[in-house]
Amino acid sequence: MKVSFALLAGLLLVGGLHTEAHASGVDAKDARILGYWQRGEGEAIIEVSRNADIYQGVIVSSERRPETVGIAIFRDLRYDAEDGAWHGRAYSIKRKREVRIDIEVPKVDQLELTAHIMIFTRRVEFKRIPDAEVVGRQLADR
Question: Who contacts 108 (Cβ-Cβ below 8 Å, separation ≥6)?
Answer without folding.
Answer: 32, 128
